[in-house]
Amino acid sequence: MSSYYPHRPPHAASADELASRMQTNGAYRTPAAPAQQQPPALGWDQRPQQSQAQPQYQEPAIQQPAVMAQTTGTHWPQFVNNNRLIGALVAGFGATQLATMFGYWIYGLGIMEGPLDFAFFNGVILTPNATANEAGFAVSQWFAGMGFHYFNGMVFALAYALVIFPWLGKTHTTGSNLARSLGMGMFLATASCGWWIPALHPEDVIGIDPGFFSINLGWGTVLGVYLWHVVWAVALGLFFNPQD
Hints:
The chain contains 8 helices and no strands. It is an all-alpha fold and 244 residues long. 53% of the residues lie in helices and 0% in strands.
């Protein structure tokens, strides 16, 4: 049988009909969205570590000094700077005491055969006619010489502190003070060996002519006199140590 139907007139298809036919025949399909790739599963040792909580800010601790605080009061250099007279007296006594001890112990260094006794040198000048005891020791002469010896040490310290030291100008270091006091000590040692011992201790007083620069008493005695004054000068410079 023929499928042609002459009694059914042809008609134009609408847009909806065309779209329906294309979907049915597969001519028009809506493109599908691309599939998202899933990341591969990580093992337990490959998993990112969870971020730890950020530590809160803490102010740094204040470090305490090793020495918490200085002792109260005035330190000795400051005291000497404000009290030159008292400082000079203390320095003179301390320096003379230390040097006198060194003089009695100097023979232990092998420089002299006996002690360097300035009390004897001064005593024979003050009391040349003092009577000695059975041991040949004049007690009154020795004590008179020792007292005069300390008096001389303190007077020289006063002259250094109140006259020579200010004349040399201001100083700021202990080293410069020691240089000044050593200069004073070397002057006194030279005066002792070059004039004081030879002129005031003749042969009829001490039993031997000291000679030029006291050389007849032995080089050990001359060296001992200089070392004695070095000890005195160093002690003087450390005790009388103002900081201008």
